[in-house]
Amino acid sequence: MYQQHLAQGGTMTPEQFAYNYAATGGFSPEGMANYNRNTQDIQQRDQAAINAYRDNQQRNYNDRQNSNQRNDEIAHQRGNLLNGTTDYVDPNTGAQYNLSHIAHPNTQTYNPNTGESFYLDNQGNYQRIDQNGWQNGLEEVE
Asked: What is the CB neighbour count within 10 angstroms for residue 126?
């Protein structure tokens, strides 16, 4: 059979011919169809395994990112606790501020870096006083 293959212009080595002959049932149409079907099934299973691996790697990456972000949040809150500060946001502008929660009521604080002033009223609420004298109530960041 191998000699006939060569006589017809075939270029397979004896090893390649023997493998393909056995894998396709003697190059029969049914054997070749089975071989092609099995090859496709293997490729699909391999691709599914690769996709599952990549999905798992992405989930692991996302979990690590979420864990790192949560650790950063915890560290920030610990820093606030140690410094006696709380995070506030101006609901009108979205700007965030880190202000003392141990300041005395009816006091004003000036930030020389931004030129903004903050007033703490009797109820413990901060107001941001802009450069025009307007007061905007601040909300504590959750």
From this structure: 23
CA 77, 81, 84, 86 torsion-angle sign? positive
Which residue shows structure tokens 């989930």? 59
Evaluate if residue 113 carries a pLDDT over 80: no
Specify the DSSP element, H or E, that contains 110.
strand 107-111
Place of tokens 């946001």: 89
- Per DSSP (E only), the strands in 72-115 are 85-89, 96-100, 107-111
Token pair in block for residue 89? 């946001």
Distance between CA atoms of 11 and 27, rounded to whole angstroms? Answer: 15
Q: pLDDT tens digits, residue range 19-76?
A: 999 999 999 999 999 999 999 999 999 999 999 999 999 999 999 999 999 999 999 9
Tell me, what amino acid is at 15? E
Tell me the three state secondary structure of residue 25: coil
CB 92 within 8 A of CB 139: no
